[in-house]
Amino acid sequence: MSTTEPNLSISNPHPEDTDVIQKIALVVACFGVLILLAAWANVALDASVFMPIAIISMIGGTTVYGARSYLKQPEGIKNNGIWHFSLTSRGAFAWAVGILLTGFYILLYWFPGYVGFVQNGENQGLVALFDPLSMAIKGRPASQWFMYGTLYTIAILALGMKFIFKYRHSRYQLIRTISVMIAQLVFAYTIPEILAALNYNDVTTTAGEYVGYYDTDIKNVWPLDYDFFYSYHLDAMQEKAYQPFGMIYLVVGIGLFLIGTPILTYLIGKRWYCSWVCGCGGLAETAGDPFRHLSSKKLSAWTLERWLIHSVMVFVFVMTAVTLYGYFTGASSVFGLDIYSKFQKPYGFFIGAIFSGIIGVGFYPMLGNRVWCRFGCPMAGYMGIIQRFKSRFRITTNGGQCISCGNCSTYCEQGIDVRAYAQKGQNIVRASCVGCGVCSAVCPRGVLKLENGPEEKRYDLPPIIIGNESVKISD
Amino acid sequence: MHNIVIIGNGISGITTARHVRKLSDHKITVISAETDHFFSRTALMYIYMGHMKYEHTKPYEDWFWKKNRIDLKRAFVEKVDTEGKTLHFSDGETMPYDKLVIATGSKPNKFGWPGQDLEGVQGLYSYQDLESMEANTKNISRAVIVGGGLIGIEMAEMLRSRNIPVTFLVREESFWDNVLPNGESQMINRHIKEHHIDLRLATELKEIVSDENGRVKSIITGTGETIKCEFVGLTAGVSPNIGLLKGSGIETKRGVLVDPFLKTNIDDVYALGDCAEFLEPNGERKNIEQVWYTGRMMGEALARTLCDKPTKYEPGHWFNSAKFLDIEYQTYGWVWAKAKDNENDFYWEHKNGKICLRLRWDKSTGKLLGVNNLGFRLRHHAFDKWFKEGRTVDYVLEHLKDANFDPELYKTYEAEIIAQFNRENGKNIQLKKKSWKRILDFVS
To answer: Which of A86, A174, A393, A398 should be substituted to probe chain B, the one whose Cβ sees the most B Cβ atoms within 10 Å?
Structure first.
């Protein structure tokens, strides 16, 4: 099937008439982006004026545009033209966006100077644009990470609003999306910045001595937060000046991994984290939503997934064990292997940066929005094992109602061939399911229901789908 | 080991093939002129709408067939020689068989309208129909759809997904009112209009008018109105696609005549799915069942017969589903357009006008006979079990929460439904809490 009309819209799948309000909203949102680009190009802008304008324009413009586009149409599934549009079907526009995102991540990780970050000097470009915000919150200039965190949060908020209008008929999607938006804004962005502002983290004393840094995004649980146990983080959390927060983060961080995660995953599946709370998941579900259908559903992709995600998991466990060994013994190497250069550095480079950042987000328009979550994330791997073998969560199939249409599988961002189960009348119990609920939403026949129930009969495969008396189970 | 040849790779033929393979080592060949691989016919609309590509509509990856030793052949069967047990293809080739399964599906109905074979006039059933619809609807300013059934409303939705103005001619007084009772039918009428589809009820097609190139340029309705259009969708039902059986000696009427074992009048020749017509009616069911689910169930039964375990096609309690634009529809048991004399009727509609529930039950015994639910989802297992156990409407309403299949966190309507039911029927039914124990007991 060929393309009917070229359309580069990311937000409105098929604008019949783009009205004046939509056009103005689009201009406003683009103006916000333009300010970013201008700042990046070192155009002399008064950051204290243009930074708030940029943020408000991007969030406000996107929200109004999304509202206008979707509220004009009857509520329902809005996937018209997804496979016809360049951006959402791996066309030229998708490649362009993918290359831009990838390039941005490369600069951010390894060449922050090119986005304007100046160590021990006055920032320039994009980073400088966020100096006033950083100054206002914590009284010091922005870093490239502050700039990135701000943009990341803006993306989740603005495109989360768009998602809410798109799925306004589904209370599950509404509440879930509000949850990831709040989690990002409050836990990942606001609280850490406030703690730093109140000198509970990232402090340099008046004497010029750096006290230390630890991760204060409480929902960023180890092993996703792979450097949680690095010695300088552990030291910082025990730093006197940071109490009681340092110890709270240490105890809660370990508690979430050891106790919170297994219990919650047992009760409601890994979705409590992946699609309701997690920052990576938050971006995937909002900004990444237009790319969810690009995940591969091949059996071979599933095989690769199981090898990769569990390899990364073993890698992070070994790396962390070695790190802790070094921390408690003071050794800098294990079996003659240097802990930093042979364990921590490769993990940070290959997994932390390349896999989760560059491939995970940069490749959204090519591989879908959950590549990292599906193939890499060790936290997802850990919860996946619990979800697969010891959990109340499953997707129930509605008897014989499946028509094998394939919408569920197509729109599964985790590449689960949902249809393969649904057409057999079997529950979907899969380690990788993040519980986004979109399979259930796009099903035209009401076949799929995410639910938590007794483990009894959870794995049952009916010998024959109900509705047919020709074949008795006893046969 | 037999050489089983199946003509048709739709849900009926493929289900037969898969189950024969599960049960036996017979040689299996599936022939199709339509596509190389099995795809979900019900999903054709989503390809046009850009929700999926063709590859997504294939329920099995392409390696599946070789792995399961199901040979696929792309060919058009022109003639069936039942005496010599040989198929003759359009390219002159032949293929012998030991047992033959006819699963050739349907073709769109054409009722002899003037102009029905013009360019730009078509039905929608096959993959080829989809391709021609893609070509026929390029840059058009209006489409007309003739026939208010499931394919008609799907076609309207497809065209609207590309912002093509649609006029929808429905012969009946209200959409699909030979199947849907008035409340449901009116709801869909409103929803069709909400989608800016020009719905013309009680309107027939009189003629399709050609331009100078043999292409449709307009239609004329029964009332003499001319509507300019460049595309006409004929969706007034389908009928069995059995042209290839002419002269084969296989008895046909509208479809291929079969007994309850799906056997035709000729030994070792079977038929199932859309193209089969039962000699004896099966309960309240139609003699020709053109439904995805029934095709699948016939395949499950026929595979056993082919593997020397003679098995009648014995469908259980009726169920079906559809989606009318944004409104989902499910039905369990029998809900006739008009309640029969022995039936009581209850209809509840949400104030938003997009969610409703209808119940029918026996006046004397109170036993539930059927349910229609639109705009929300109900559990198939619950109703299948309740019908088998002969549960009364009172019991069903009491336990309605067990049957709710809407996504979590959705608003529920049971209390409102039961309040209205109690009010109208002078009852005092109390809603029970959802019970996982009972839900798990449905599946046993």
So the answer is: A398
